[in-house]
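[retry 2/3] RNA-binding S4 domain-containing protein: previous attempt timed out, resubmitting with same input.
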Amino acid sequence: MAGAITSSVVTPLRILRRTTLIQTFRFPLCLSNNHFSQRKFRFLCNPTNSSPVAGLCHLVHAFKGDSSGDLIKGVVDKNILEDVRRVLEMAKRASSRKGIVHTDFLAPPVLKESMHALEKLADVKAIAQGGYPQAERCRLSIRHSEAMTTTPDIIEALSITGNFGLQPCSHGDFLGAILGTGIAREKLGDILLQGEKGAQVLIIPELVDFLVTAMDKVGNVRVTCTRVPLLALEYAPPRTKTFKTVEASLRLDAVASAGYKISRSKLVDLISKGDVRINWSPVTKNGTTLKTGDMVSVSGHGRLKIGEINRTRKGKFAVEVIQFL
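[retry 2/3] RNA-binding S4 domain-containing protein: success.
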């Protein structure tokens, strides 16, 4: 089966920054068991429709001409439409060949919209892996319902160590150093900072050896890269601060301006510029209503999560706001 859906081994240089999107997904297949606990999203086909032909017909109809737009009608962020379309094209390929394909690491908005679109396809199942339970950037393994019996190993981890005691480095420093080797952003998952010890990085397996050889400095700090098992990843729940605000309504501009402690007029301006997102999707209306569980992010200001909401005696809303530090 693997031979039917993969090509020859791809060298690291072909999957650097100038790699084409078609080459991106032609990696050798790995089907060994993955024993660590990870976040998974599964999309099951309709149990009453077990016919491979029916599933293929559904996909052909979905992708014929521009009709794939039916699958992505709900995508608000036009900047990610092409990324979602590529994922759907991969799903079409996996279904037609009764095989399995793997995406690169997807940013949260692309992952979210791709999952929603994949739910509409017959005979397709997808598993999201980020390397650890709280991962934001994940890879999708998309397969025909008959093709995959185990969770494939499609992520590896590297430890980047050096003397960071006197010269601490930020997330951007590590990311910039890795991209400086020529590796494209979509080949990298999350970067877990470890303070004086350095950082741990999630990466596609095909580039592990390349990065171990090419990575020698972060900022002004000399570093060493070594492969580590996923079970050795050191991560912790994000640090948060919780407080309450009382508002006359649950409008985005009212609650978020209080949460970020910025004026409502400034927040309105940020919304108009497309810098405000709810659950990873951009919003353009100030009056969008928030609800418990919504994640609000503002470029340059971080993220907030809406917690419990209660009515006050005066008819206002007491909103619990969880701020990510």
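[retry 2/3] RNA-binding S4 domain-containing protein: The chain is about 25% helix and 25% strand.
[retry 2/3] clearing retry counter.
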